[in-house]
Amino acid sequence: YFSGFPAPVRALLMPVLPVLELFVIWESLSGTTRWGISVSLVLFIWGFMQANLKPGRMVMRFLLRNRGWLYRDSGQSGGPKTSTSLQIRQHIYLISLWLLWKTIGWEKRLLSGGWKRSKTYAVQDTLPPLPVPKLRDTFRRYLDSVRPIWPSDKCEEMVQLITELGAAGGAGERLQRELVRRARHLRMQSSWIEAWWEKEHLLKSRLPLPVFGNWYGLDRPDTPCMSQSLRAAWLSLGAVRFHRHLSREKLEPLRMMSVVPLCMNQYKGVFNTCRIPCKNVDELHTWDCPSPFGPSTVPQIPQLRRSSPTESPLTPRGTPGGTFLRGGEKVPHLAVMSRGQLYTMDLFHADGISLTVEEIQQQLETILEMSKRAQAGHDAQAPIGILTTEERDTWARLRGKLIEAHQDNQQALHAVESAMFLLVLEGACPEAIEDQAKTMFLGDGRNRWYDKSFQLIVFENACAGVNVEGSWADAPVASHLFGFMHDHENMARFANRSSPNLNPATAGAGADKLSPRLAPPKKLTWRLTSELAEGMDRAQIHFDALADRTDLHVMHMRYFGKGFIKKCQMSPDAFVQMALQLAYYRTTGQIHLMVETAHTRQFLHGRTELVRSVSSDSVAFIKAMAHLDTGAADTKL
């Protein structure tokens, strides 16, 4: 075939020779034979898939669970740290996964009912289980992390202890076998460390959630210019849309580098989730409140609209109209906090249609007016939220007393804890960014409910932020939601180009002229005893002392960012870690153990692991950098 080509070209074309030979054989067959082979091949593939043997998923599962060949000669076993073959293998791996994504999409189209199948959890069964590290690797990594910070005599003592623990037939091997057995038992269900991590590391902590358990997030730099109630309405409507996607499992799975799938299990706890205080160990409870299957009121950008102008993009196919609520289905509601007072409001009408932004704004304006009257001394309720700032055992005991005091308290607690999320309407926004951050992080303790999965906080000037409880999911999951809510605002601005009625800054201008068919917000009432009142006073004292002991500084790096670091052929993460270690060493003159978090969501039910960033190499680098200002010209890094 290639006799007329030069030798180098023939060498490159030799791999396609079998394909050409098959093509020649195919051309030599008669038309009837070719038709018979084609039909047989199609029937074979169809039967293969109908038997639930999906080749694309099987190959993806194999590639995701067998990746050792990717890192061969990557420096882990003494080989070169970079190589051309390593880069080629990685590119082949990523291209293969991309092709498999397309193959899985065709499998879903060929299978009966494929259009109704889940997107969010579509590839969960292909994710590999979290591996159990080898015992000797665990010992080696542990010693590498403590050698730079321990004296030599203590290191020698630890080496002796590790040698005894890792001896043949010793306790180390027995424990390792138990870990491997547990991992095999949970192989297709969960991660072998998930329950321990969630319970032992997170839920067993008895420290208060403020500072020790919750984290905060600030608003986008370009805060939209609008009223407090309107900004809160737009963000809440974005959360409703995200909730709708999750309920229908239409949210696309996240992928690293657009091809490597990540576990989506943590998304089950985004909404209607609360951390319940209990004695010794807390509980995470998620209420089953799916989004009603009514048409969406969320504006769609033109590219995403369907061809039919009368069909809503989220209306179920084949549904002519009428009610979309199933029998016995619980409709999600929203909990709102303003000036220490708690309220609840509906997010959906009785027919399953979500409230519009104007309707949500009308409800929020009503809540703001009710809270102002309460603050003036009319029908004011005690700020129960301050109890959530206490130590967990103390709050668990007071919560039990609160439930025993009156039945109304139990109903009010359920209304808050089962809400989709908590919306906090704050007062004036501090001017300094550090004061804004501390308000998001702590607040006054009275206008917060720290047990909720997340609290959306909106100031009077429309500046927004979040406070997130950390046990139900890791930060990237919550960040995905908040990014989605911001994109929802941007989408409304874009849609305004073709429809002025969708302008976020003016959409609620006629909120006071809406139909009175909306059910008014409900104010939650509490019946307190003298013991509960004293507990609230002590909680306020403890919280104020904790806030005074908390220093929070926000550093805005203006000189360069991750782009410049990457141009210098360095990892931004490693750069920041070295900067932290160097700053700590220059400040204290000491080197201590430091850790950073790394997600393991590329594995089934993976969450977060701690990486020890201090090593002998990092210590040598830090000490060399710390002495650069001594004038020594021969300082080497």
Q: Classify the beta-strand content into a percent band.
A: 5-15%
Intertermini distance: 58 Å
What structural class do the secondary elements suggest?
alpha+beta
How can the largest sheet be summarized? 7 strands, mixed
Oligomer: single chain
Overall pLDDT score: 82
Low-confidence segments, given as residue ranges, are 76-81, 112-116, 294-328, 498-504, 506-511
Give the overall silhouette: globular
What is the helix content? Answer: 40-55%
Q: Work out the helix count.
A: 20
What features would you highlight for this structure?
single chain; seven-stranded mixed beta sheet; two-stranded antiparallel sheet; alpha+beta; globular; 20 helices; 637 residues
Write structural notes for this entry.
With 637 residues, this protein is an alpha+beta fold. Helices cover 44% and strands 9% of the residues. The protein is built from 20 helices and 13 strands. A seven-stranded mixed beta sheet has the order 1-10-9-8-6-7-11, with helices on both faces. It has a two-stranded antiparallel ribbon with strand order 2-3. A hairpin with a 2-residue loop joins strand 6 (333-338) and strand 7 (341-346). The radius of gyration is 30 Å and the shape is globular.
